[in-house]
Amino acid sequence: MSSIADNIESVTRRIQKATLAAGRPVESVHLLAVSKTRPAADLREAFAAGQRAFGESYLQEALDKIAALADLDGLEWHFIGPIQSNKTRQIAASFDWVHGVDRLKIARRLSEQREPQLPPLNICLQVNIDNEASKSGCRLEELPELVAGVGQLANLRLRGLMAIPDPQQDDQGLRSSFHRLADALAELRHRFPDAGPLDTLSMGMSDDLELAIAEGATWVRVGTALFGARN
Ligand SMILES: *Cc1c(COP(=O)(O)O)cnc(C)c1O
Predict the structure, then answer these.
(1) Tens-digit pLDDT profile for the chain (231 aa)?
(2) H or E segment to which residue 119 belongs
(3) Interval between CA 191 and ligand 1 midpoint (Å)
(4) For ligand 1, what atom is nearest to the CA of residue 32?
(5) Cβ distance 31 to 53 under 8 Å?
(6) What separation in Å is there between the alpha carbon of 205 and the centre of ligand 1?
(7) Domain spans in the chain, listed from the N-terminal domain onward
């Protein structure tokens, strides 16, 4: 079995290869290590191999790991799960990024509950890019209103968009989903120049990160390819 350090190296190589093939600068794509369900010891191992950004989906589990790893300097915590309104206070207190915001009510609470002495919380709006019945995320048509609202919130920094395409599609279908998300971001940047940096596309996972990078991903969220299959 390969070690976590080996896996980080091979995923990093995949990212670099895809980034260069797309004619993009190597530093333009970041690796988010999705560590949900993995023990703190695995994150420590990834940290020793140079990984700093970790993505978690379950709040209590994440808070336990954040506490267990408080001795490590420079960790960056990303919340990537669905967000219930009774969880926003703890998310605003403990995370650097939130990728799954899909309604204004949640964004307002995160901004109100973010301590103003902390840096603004980085936000991505999640889009249900293939209009799947069971998936979180807003519809593309709802984005302008959301961006206009979230762009006003003092303690948030609107970084961009996040999506998880319908995994049943073939490569061409996945690529077209990523492409639609990238188009939507470009349009929003043009229409709302003051809403935030809008410099981020959080898209691509273990099996499709190359396709996402070809379409402009700036964060790929990778779990299985780093840590192995989840229980
Ligand atoms: C679990 C998860 C991932 C990682 O998926 P892998 O296929 O294991 O790489 C990425 N994004 C989100 C939102 C997730 O919940």
Answers:
(1) 689 999 999 999 999 999 999 999 999 999 999 999 999 999 999 999 999 999 999 999 999 999 999 999 999 999 999 999 999 999 999 999 999 999 999 999 999 999 999 999 999 999 999 999 989 999 999 999 999 999 999 999 999 999 999 999 999 999 999 999 999 999 999 999 999 999 999 999 999 999 999 999 999 999 999 999 987
(2) none
(3) 30
(4) 10
(5) yes
(6) 6
(7) 4-227
